[in-house]
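During the second year of the project, the team shifted from modelling isolated chains to modelling whole assemblies. The rationale, set out in the original proposal, was that interfaces cannot be judged from single-chain predictions alone. As a representative example for this report, we include one of the complexes processed in the last quarter. Its constituent sequences, exactly as entered into the pipeline, are reproduced here:
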Amino acid sequence: MPELPEVETVRRQLAPWLTGRTIARVELLAPPGPKYAGLERAAGQSIESVKRRGKFLLMPLSGGDELVAHLGMTGVLTPGGVAAPPKHLRVAVDLEGATPNRLEFNDPRRFGRFLVVKRGEYGALPTLAALGPEPLDAEFTAEGFHAALRRSRVAVKTYLLSQRPVAGVGNIYADEALWRVGLHPMTPSERVKPKQARQLLDAIRDVLSASIEAQGTTLSDYRTVYGESGDYADRLEVYGRAGQACHRCGGLLEKMVVGQRGTTYCPDCQRRPRA
DNA sequence: CGCATTTCCTGGTAGC
DNA sequence: TGCTACCAGGAAATGC
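Output from the structure prediction step:
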């Protein structure tokens, strides 16, 4: 499922194609709703850049608006016209000028979003409005991360998934990072020590960076703009490996539910802190 | 405001 | 083969 590395991979591929292009029209094929708001305003505006914040793709438009895309669980952005329209085509953006001149948003489960807002006005996107710092931003310090983690009593994994202490970490990379530093997913966020926060931020950075290099993790739906799979799935240490051996201690990895989300961890390497 | 719970949605799969 | 039941989960909505 698309998390920061997958979205960054898509951004890097979209940017050279879409930057400077003018939108001729936008076609909404999904049932209208807040997930696809404002699309009629995009026509006539040009795309100034293709940015990313956490798992959100942000495309400032020349007329003062902003195109915001979130891939959700199953969203895929590809050039249209090169193949038959995908089965679950939700939005198509026609561009002026040379081919490829059509961006298609395919999203079987419709958990994704593709909408136009006034630039920087994220009232309809509360998670984006309250998004934590970019984990790969050098100005984001371990001290700042620790201070953020101290603001909540919920399980540290749940708090990471909220996108508030740090942007872009989803279910896969949360499990991977917590395993790397030996933190139990149910550890209350406020109880994470300064040293552990530093180690956790380092682990998040290492895992995300390595996955970006591999063009992300493809388990089922995720593909790059050009249809490639991401290669990081082969390097996952815990996600999807419940019942298999921990690569550090040799014990069996277990699956549990934390904050309504499937969570794989090593009961030996990730000890639950005593209450 | 914080936090827990429910909702959205379809493809894949287990079980019969 | 064909049916039902259930699972996966990011973010928003809802309910304290």
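Chain A has a mean pLDDT of 95. The longest helix of chain A spans residues 194-213.
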